[in-house]
Amino acid sequence: MAVKTDGPQASRANGWPSRVLAKLWETKELLITLTAIVVFWIVIVEVRDFHPIVLPPPGAVVEALVQNAGDYVGAGFITFYEMILGFIAGGLLGFVSAIGIYYSPFLRRSLYPLLLGFRIVPKVAFVPLFLVWFGIGVGVKVALASFAIFFLILIQTLLGLTSVDPALVELGRSLGMREVSLLRRIRLPAALPAIMVGVKLGITYALTNVVVAEMVVATNGLGFLVVEARSLIRTDEMIAAIFVVAFIGLAVYAVGLWVERRTVFWYAEDDV
Known about the structure:
By secondary structure, this protein is mostly helical. Helices cover about 80% and strands about 0% of the residues.
């Protein structure tokens, strides 16, 4: 007796290979580029006969990733945790500060220029000062990440708030909205595209600064693994750790894109 396979379940079962192939086809340019980079890497190592300390072959990097997978996963969780803490703390502080500066002409004339001046200073220059204030540990890494995110969210939020169409604000006032309602229902939704740009860039900035802090002061995390591999002259492990950092950066940026498409779907970026 033949088994009937018609219906939604059969359709889904028969459709998933085509969906996978469609997704792969959408990323064909990326796959071609990655393949070309790996081939070029292999060729230049063979032609120039680089010593593995100078430039290891791709196979050695993959082997290092597999052999030290547990270390990379553990260090990655530590770096990710510190990045999220720094992003939340710096993002919230930047958002609240932007609203305060937007509504206060005094702060806009007195504090905002000073903040812009501090933004220009490389964040790594503050590491010795943060060491004095927060000591060696999670605090200095979270502080450095928060410091970097703060300025980005502050500027993007101010940019969004100052770019709101005045006609929308006047419409809200004509409907009897108070300023709190205008902020919640008109100003912030209209500023959301600019804020989301800050969120997407900010979370990668947080990762960058956490890794820098780990390389300078930490005893754990991916940045520490890079420094440890350098001290052992293990270039393959250094490159492997860098690849893990890049993977986390791409993952959190993809999450930012996903959030953007669901919060500001009318303004979200095209697929990248």
